[in-house]
What does this fold into?
Amino acid sequence: MRNKNSAPTMKDVALEAGVALGTVSKVINGLPVGEPYRIRVEEAIKKLNYHVNSYAQGLKASKTYTVALLIPNTYHPYFAMLSYQINIALLKRKYRMLLCSTEYNPRLEQEYITMAQQNKVDGIIGLTYNPDLIVDDNVPFVSIDRSMGPKIPCIASDNFAGGQMAAEKLADLGCKNVAFLRIGSSLNNEPNKRKAGFENGCLSRKLPYSLKILDDGEPLDEFECFLREHMHNGKLDFDGIFCVTDRTVYDVRKILNKMGINVPEDVQMIGFDGIQTFGVGDYVCSTIVQPVREIAEMCVELLLQENMTTKPPLVCLPVSYMYGGTTKEFDK
Amino acid sequence: MRNKNSAPTMKDVALEAGVALGTVSKVINGLPVGEPYRIRVEEAIKKLNYHVNSYAQGLKASKTYTVALLIPNTYHPYFAMLSYQINIALLKRKYRMLLCSTEYNPRLEQEYITMAQQNKVDGIIGLTYNPDLIVDDNVPFVSIDRSMGPKIPCIASDNFAGGQMAAEKLADLGCKNVAFLRIGSSLNNEPNKRKAGFENGCLSRKLPYSLKILDDGEPLDEFECFLREHMHNGKLDFDGIFCVTDRTVYDVRKILNKMGINVPEDVQMIGFDGIQTFGVGDYVCSTIVQPVREIAEMCVELLLQENMTTKPPLVCLPVSYMYGGTTKEFDK
It folds into this structure.
């Protein structure tokens, strides 16, 4: 008889359903089993209020050697490179990777978390902007760029240091009046520290600065208005601009060109990410480079690490500056 | 007793090993099972010369709802977009996708094919340049860009039509003497038809043309030598260049700039692929666009199609031309 005080086990389900233990396992794992057996097992699971979780906990040793990656898409070059590096880091360790392009769909994200709870994958690496996503403490999960609780490691670039580096670089390059332009989520995430780091760098170098921050979805015209407000006698007030991403440099540079302002002659620009043309060519702009390979390795290391009682809640990895044509320190 | 004339079944293995059928299934599927049972099952499999394949064939209905994608990497923007679109096409149908960045590693490719043979994935979509890759006829496989035998569908852009379209476009744009530049595998694959299509287009428009083809790994300097050989009185002989990929346009344009030749003023250029900046922005050059979403949908459709006795061996999907700044038909 089952001890009424402890959580029901798979064995209890088998006894209740009058089937073999293997049949219960098959139902739980979605393997083929006769329809009458499936129904009996499912009814027993309901009746005993059996949680697949207890199965998962009891069988942690039975690995699937599969890890799921949740990422908004793989066509943005940063996500593309990150997916590649995580894939390579996993393959090196003989792990397979399920790719889930979430397109910010919370249902899909939650589905993969359920798979991890049911032990169908060994863990999840997730880059998600979903503030409502609930990840159980006992689901092996590593988050990129957004902290999801003290027990879930979050891996990111050192975004604060990167923002500061951008400010200091613009100061070194002779800028006297700079701006920070951001589009993006007001969520509490690591990339948001770029702004604070930038302000800190400007203050320490006594470099005057302005900020313009758009919410997701706000039109880029807002940047144009902001820039036009800072035009005097046909010249832009700023001689340096730090953008929150390389993509923003690309968009703002087009606006500036339209306004007759040349980059880098009239205004120098630094982005963030380190996007290279075709993934391997020139940097698309001067930029603070995220250490993608190191981020990928750290995610995989921490996810698969089993002999660690306390995993680090936040890991910030060092960034670097690379020239990419939108600053004046080099001759092309 | 087992009929000695037919291939052994999983039941035969269970009888031989003295275990339940479910135990054999678990061993074959890599699920946890007591060590003594595993050994008995494995010995029975050996003794009977049981092929997992017969299991796979007998249980085609037991789906894993998982498909593997073999692709060299995901950081090249074309591969990145293709991975994304295939991922989305599978997720729409409630299928999971294992991503395998092969980096042209034949061992990895063959491993995933073995997984498919053992019914651990429902099928494979592969973009591989490995001429030695062996894919069994009974492994559900769809190939992108390279024919792998009459029973394996190959999905590609209509590369011949694309090459022809490029020639005709250059003629329409007023070019009088054009060149085709290719870097790339001499393998027998679909993209190689771009050259034949281009020649056909030039001939039909009576447009004189030259060809320069580099092998994989040959230095780009070879293009520079070729172009310098075609300089007379400080002017390039060609007023139009078709490159085998957008990436080649990017590389050759840098060479031309170094030589003091301006694109599109002195020479117009058309590439192939349809790469957009950051995956969603402007086309990086004027280009023949591959229909990535349609290619992805067709791959998934044909792979998962079960009620089809004869699958089409080669599907060519229509391409289109898009302006991207390296030709003269539009004002920017």
Remarks:
- The longest helix of chain A spans residues 77-92.
- Confidence is low (pLDDT under 50) at residues 54-60 of chain A.
- Chain A has eleven helices and 14 strands.
